[in-house]
Design goal:
The complex is a heterotrimer. In chain A, 45% of the residues are buried. Chain A has two domains: 164 residues, P-loop containing nucleotide triphosphate hydrolases (Rossmann fold, 3-Layer(aba) Sandwich); 75 residues, no CATH class. Chain A contains nine helices and ten strands. Chain A has a six-stranded mixed β-sheet, sandwiched between helices. In chain A, strands 2-1-4-5 form a four-stranded antiparallel β-sheet, covered by helices on one side. Chain A is α/β, with parallel strands linked by helices. Chain B has a domain of 210 residues. Chain B is built from twelve helices and four strands. In chain B, strands 1-4 form a two-stranded antiparallel sheet. Chain B has a two-stranded antiparallel sheet with strand order 2-3. By secondary structure, chain C is mainly alpha-helical. Helix content of chain C is 77%, strand content 3%. Chain C has eleven helices and two strands, in the order ααααββααααααα. A two-stranded antiparallel sheet of chain C has the order 1-2. The longest helix of chain C is centred in the first third of the chain and has 32 residues. Chain C is globular. The relative contact order of chain C is 0.19. At the B-C interface, α5, α10 and α12 of B face α3, α4, α9 and α11 of C. Bound molecules: adenosine-5'-diphosphate and magnesium ion. Adenosine-5'-diphosphate binds next to β2 and α1 of chain A.
Chain lengths: 251, 319, 304
Amino acid sequence: MAEALLEVSRLSRRFGAVDALKEVDFNVTAGEVHALIGPNGAGKTTFIHHVSGALQPDSGRIRFAGHDVTALSMHRRVSAGMARSYQITNIFPGLSALDNVALAVQGRNDAGSSFRFWRPVGREAALFDEAKGYLEQVGLQDKGGAAAGMLSHGEQRALELAMVLATRPKLLLLDEPMAGTGPEESARMVELIEQLARRVTILLVEHDMAAVFRLADRISVLVNGQLICTGTPDEVRNDAAVRRAYLGDHL
Amino acid sequence: MALYRAAPWQKPLSLALLLAALALPTALSALDQAFYIGFATRVLIFALAASSLNLVLGFGGMVSLGHAAFLGAGAYVAAICQQAGINEALIAFPLAMSVAGLFALVVGAVSLRTRGVYFIMITLAFAQMAYYLFVSARSWGGDDGLPLNGRMTLGGLPLASDDALFYAALLALVAAMALFGRLVDARFGRVLQAIRENETRMEALGYPVFRFRLVAFVLGGMVAGLAGALLANLTGLASPNLLQWTQSGTLLVMVIIGGVGYLYGGVVGAVILLMLEETLVGFTAHWHIVLGLLLLAVVLFAPRGVAALFGPARSDEHG
Amino acid sequence: MLQLILEQTLNGLQFGLMLFLLAAGLTLVFGIMDCINLAHGSLYMVGAYFVAAATQAADSFWIGLGVGVAGAAVLGLVLELTLFRRLYQRDHLSQVLATFALILIANEAVRAIWGPAALLLNPPEALAGPVEIGGFFYPAYRLLIIAVGMAVALLLYLLVARSRVGMWVRAGAANREITESLGINVRALFTAVFVFGAALCALAGGLLGPLLAVQVGMGESVLILAFVVIIIGGIGSIRGALVGSLIVGTVDTLGRALLPSLLRALLPADAASTLGPALASILIYLLMAAILFFKPQGLFPARA
Ligand SMILES: Nc1ncnc2c1ncn2[C@@H]1O[C@H](COP(=O)(O)OP(=O)(O)O)[C@@H](O)[C@H]1O
Ligand SMILES: [Mg+2]
């Protein structure tokens, strides 16, 4: 088996009386698409928050690319090669789509320091050329000038993905990228993720089971903050505990 | 909000205004109104201070209610320098900027860990702490403040005449506006504005948000310190009143009246507020009531400030 | 020495309790409405003026206090209905600007009506002298303030911690949206809290009037102390406001009284005489910074 890119061990987190995560052991192998599924309120988003560094766990460790990142802040983990999308679209609504992506490009370590006070960004053609490339990848090449907030919901999801890609991550954390999009847009998103999967490791949280079973190399199931099963799609499909948790629907 | 972009007419207009400002002392003297040169200098200095706050507030989205502390620190450094025998502005002013910047670094390092109402109250409290510190510092004049014995020299040239000080203040303002104008369209300024728009997203794109904010806060503090040093030269006094939180409130009012996040918002606001004061004081001793009512009207009816009334200084397009 | 410490501790307690009257209303406005109100100190000032004026007119401190507090409550009601109600949804900057404008108006209006000189407010005659407690003399009026402060603090605590309205208020401070979705009339609740806060301001202003001068600008310095209290205690928390008030009140009072002589014992005379007052005046701010460093949300954060 290839080495683990992300290794989460015994991760726990309580919110008041709610055990949002209980001793979760989880890993993502380099190159795979690993789907994390589970009923609403299972703790999937909370898990992503902890992996990305938005929240700090009560206990447990997170290793990424061979380093312990548990104590690192979110932006350091991004520099180390993690990037995430949010369940609720998280972009700069007032900025143009192109500026949204250009900022993502600019934030990368290899794009040079952002503590530059004098040279107009307008003269940094490379920044915008690269940003246009990412817009094209997600099919937004014609929308670069539009304010991001004015795009359709599906386009905003695509834009966020373009921003995430522009950070050139080793590991993509996608929290329900299809949430709230129409069937056509969903289909395009699935295709897009399929293409991306050839180049980058993906941790995918998703409710659309058709998409999950098509995209995932491995699937983990989270219920009430506990990981009850990890395996290939077939293994998960046939797991008794999973069937019980889902009461037979979907699977 | 979108990223700031200068309107096309902004450059020619500011050049024209600069030319007018250059001619102002001569014109006022010719009209026998040389008294107003001092007033004009005051406007320039407050335009500088308000613009430094606009960087922090308008572009950085940090509602600091303690900015006058840096203004006051700059004024005191100038006065203390002179007391120590340093009468050269080329030494005293950079020193004032450094001390104010250092102070901003400390205040920012603590207060920028907090958000919203907390941040407002904490910056206010720190400024008040500085105020009490100077009030109780007897060797620096305590309540009465520390007077200057005449104005300093700038590169050997005396600033004693009103004209000279006016041009020095103008030079400082032009330099600061040139820096801010470039900065907001450079990488740093874009990051700063994007943080104002969506802090979480910036953090999730890998930006060390705290550091960018702190740098902007310190830069704003330094420029305010420069304004303070100039002000001490104008009024001949470093007074603890400069650090009072009402002074911070006044700077805030200037920025809001002028237009938060518009490059010239601070300048426009300083001009309007000080001219308003100058006019209203002639009519009524209770001009603050009029000012207060005007401010309420601005909040309720022109929430984006006066600069926002003039054309679209923002654009959603880029490159 | 011991007597001095005892006396100053009582002074600190008294000051802290008055701060609590101010901070209690303020922390709720901040916490529930997420609204910054710089003019809270102006309500305190105007309240003190109301009390002073009413006392002069009625020739009785108690009637004056009642009328003044009622007047401030009415003023608070008018302000809430006409202005603050529109500010709650606005950004913090607009709130700062609008309430700063209110300060300018209030200060100038008071100056126009009552003149620039401070007003004299005498304590009720029966309480003008000192009383003996445990072998030393302490002003009776200050004891009264302590008693009233404690009573109000207890009342507030019971109100917020035990009553149904208090439960709404706490819920509102912790999560406004959810409270709203439970069908509670948040608008009326806001108005009530604001008016109540204004009345408490006037009570503090009226009670402190005989000790401090009733003058223009008295609101601003006390406002900032109330801010420090709220920062230390945690926004939206009544318990935090009480603890913060007592900490700030005693530390500030004891610091000013004892620190200079303490430093004189430790340092050379001239160093002590420069450092003493300076250190004493910024003591609570240093304390605030230290608390913030370890607990950025204050001691008792209302929001988890
Ligand atoms: N900030 C928070 N405070 C309190 N409880 C939370 C918080 N975030 C999530 N929770 C709770 O944790 C549980 C898991 O939520 P979440 O991770 O959003 O689930 P999922 O993404 O799987 O639908 C839920 O019960 C939710 O109510
Ligand atoms: Mg979720």
